[in-house]
Amino acid sequence: MNLVIQSVAPLSTDHHKILVALARGSHAAVIDANAIRIADADPAQRADVEAYCYTHQLDYAFVEAGRQLRDFGLVAMDMDSTLITIECIDEIADFCGLKAEVAAITEAAMRGEIKDFNESLTRRVALLKGLDASALERVYEERLQLSPGAERMLAGAKQAGLKTLLVSGGFTFFTAKLKARLGLDFTRANTLEIIDGKLTGNVIGEIVNADVKARMLRETCATLGIEASRAIAIGDGSNDLKMMAEAGLSVAFRAKPVVREAASVSFNFVGLDGLLRLL
C-alpha cells in the first residue's frame, strides 16, 4: 500500500521522516509542496499514523499502489457541506427567522440521530411555508460558496475521463445552477413546490434520501456502462452512507464521525482537490 499524507500548509521534511518510520514504509516521494506518498506502508500501523496526523492536522490515506484516477469512471458528490460550504435549507430558513430551528434538525439528521430522512426534510420544508421564492436566489447569490478545491478536483476528474454526478437531499434550484456553472454531467435533488411566487412548504415527487442516492449512483454507472466499483462517492452526512458503500472509493469530506468511520478515506483538513493527490 501507498500512504498519502496531505496538509493545507507546506509539509516539512521533519514530517516525512517521522511518517515513514511510523508507517514502516520504504521511502517518501514528494507529490507537491503539501503532500507526500510513502511507498510500502503497512496498514497495520494505521492507529499510530492517525494519531500523529490528527495531532498535526494532516490528512492521510492508505491507497493501493498503482491505482490511478483514470481507473474510475464516475465521481458522485453530495452538495450541501460537500461540494458547497453551506446547508442551503438552513440559509433559506434564515430569511424567515427560523435558521436555528431548521439547522438543529439538519445537524441531527446528518449525524444519523434522525433515522427517517424523509421525515426530517418534510419537517424542515414545512417551516418554509409562505416564504417568497426570491429567497432561493438570494441564498445562491449571497451565501453559496464552493468548497475549497472543488473546481480543481472537477477539472482533474474530467481531464482523467470521469463523468460527474451531483446527488443531493437539497434542492433542484441549486443543483441546476451548479450543473450549468460547473459543467456537471448528471444531477438529482428535491423539488420545492412554488405557487404564486411563494414556497408552499411541500416537496414535489420522490424525496432524495439515502436509498435514492445509492440507486442514482448505480443507475448512473449503468448508463455509463461501468461497474459501481469504478465510482468514487464523496459525502459528509449519514444520508450519504449507502451511496458511499456502493462505490469503489468513498471519501468523507469534513464529515460527521459516523461517515468518517465508514469511508475509505477522510479529508478533515485539505480541500476536495486532495482526491487528485491520492490517485
From TrEMBL:
Top-level enzyme category: hydrolase
Which CDD domains does the annotation name?
Answer: HAD_PSP (cd07500)
Which keywords fit this entry according to its UniProt record? Answer: Amino-acid biosynthesis, Hydrolase, Magnesium, Metal-binding, Serine biosynthesis
The active site is formed by: 78, 80
Checking SUPFAM superfamilies in the record gives:
HAD-like (SSF56784)
Swiss-Prot/TrEMBL catalytic activity: O-phospho-D-serine + H2O = D-serine + phosphate; O-phospho-L-serine + H2O = L-serine + phosphate
Query: What pathway annotation does it carry?
Result: Amino-acid biosynthesis; L-serine biosynthesis; L-serine from 3-phospho-D-glycerate: step 3/3
Instruction: List, alphabetically, the Gene3D superfamilies matched.
Output: HAD superfamily/HAD-like
Could you tell me the EC number(s) of this protein? Answer: 3.1.3.3
Hydrolase as UniProt keyword: yes
Protein name from the UniProt record: Phosphoserine phosphatase
> What organism does the record attribute this protein to?
Paraburkholderia sprentiae WSM5005
**What does the record give as the organism's lineage?**
Bacteria, Pseudomonadati, Pseudomonadota, Betaproteobacteria, Burkholderiales
